[in-house]
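Lab notebook, entry 380. We have the chain sequence and a SMILES string for flavin-adenine dinucleotide, and the next step in the workflow is to get a structural model of the bound complex before anyone spends time on docking refinements. Request logged below.

Task: model protein plus flavin-adenine dinucleotide, output structure tokens.
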Amino acid sequence: MERSYDVIIAGAGPSGATLGYELARRGVSVLLLEKDRLPRYKPCAGGITVKAARGLGLDIAPVTRSVVRGVRATYKRKRSFTRWYDQPLVFTVMRDEFDHLLVRRAREAGAALLDNEAVCRVEISSRAVRITTTARTLESQIIVGADGAGGVVARDAGLMRGVVFGMGMEAETSVAAEKLVQWDSLMGLDLGHIRGGYGWVFPKKDHLSVGVGGPLRQVRRLRSGYRAVLKSYDLEAGSVSRLRSHYLPVRRRGMAIQSGRCLLLGDAAGLVDPLTGEGIHHAVRSARLAAPVIHRCLESSSPDLQGYQEAVDRELMPELTAARGFARLFTWFPGLCFGLVEGHDRLWRACCRLLRGEETYVSIKQRLYPFEGLFDLLTV
Ligand SMILES: Cc1cc2nc3c(=O)[nH]c(=O)nc-3n(C[C@H](O)[C@H](O)[C@H](O)COP(=O)(O)OP(=O)(O)OC[C@H]3O[C@@H](n4cnc5c(N)ncnc54)[C@H](O)[C@@H]3O)c2cc1C
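Result returned:
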């Protein structure tokens, strides 16, 4: 056994790095284990909504590529509209730069890091946790799975069985300067090519991130959907690099994300917004909910982390559950949803406030009264 820590976190993405920071600044001895060499590329649109940025407690200006203030929406290449908002909606980043900023903050607070070293096996007993990596064996009081969708920690702890997956496919796309300038402060949202999913274009200063996502049952349509997005926005298919896909895991109410000395964060816990695929906001929030529970648990020397799952169920799940209802409506009636946002300024502004965290799915749902009960049937 090489060394022991109070807490070992598998994965140094936004959830793991945020928890590393939160624990280190509370004086906890914490190690981040990351399978890739950092900084690492990650297939992601790199959209940090204003609500997510606010929750980071960190200035992301040094890694911000573009500030989005408007949306160019298209539906089946037949209808389109462009709308602007008077305030920022989304900041775009490259994930290698953004995630590395979070990891650096954790390290500066005192967290240890081993990168290019994967967790291979986790054995949890009533006394401690034994972690076997590609290079060594380590011990800790608590293990945290921040290792993304289908992570090793959830597997070995027997958590997240039956999680529902979506899938996203994304590529960095270089375009001519005159085309790039058309996307200044604008993001693209393309509907109607993938049932229950959508395509996007995010400006990244010197190129565009173009992608498509949807339910796993639509996985075979992702490639053609991706080409359709390029066509909708008249972008060249030849200029695409790093076309990659990745899972989008969605937790259902009651699904176990904690057991004994183990808990899961972010994508490992399936905390992705089922409507938009946004995951960074809840990844960070889950880390913030876990930190005080872990700290209390270490201080009382009793491995009771149950408060974490209760906090996630109380603080995050009502919003993610309501999002599931809206995702169903969107799956069944994409043209209607498009038309409603196109034609109703109040709805457009509500969507913008949602991205900014000034409105929630739950608050929008409450305005559906007296049909709120009917809406709840969609979330079952
Ligand atoms: C195509 C696509 C586009 C997306 N666009 C957006 C977007 O615009 N905005 C948004 O908010 N969300 C987006 N998401 C979702 C977002 O990427 C995730 O929700 C977010 O990264 C979750 O953070 P995390 O820290 O939980 O996990 P991750 O960011 O996945 O980090 C997990 C880390 O664990 C490491 N790891 C995995 N296995 C091991 C192991 N065995 N040992 C050690 N380390 C390990 C991985 O290398 C990785 O660094 C997108 C997802 C996809 C697929």
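Notes for the group: The longest strand covers residues 240-250. Worth checking against the assay data. The radius of gyration is 21 Å.
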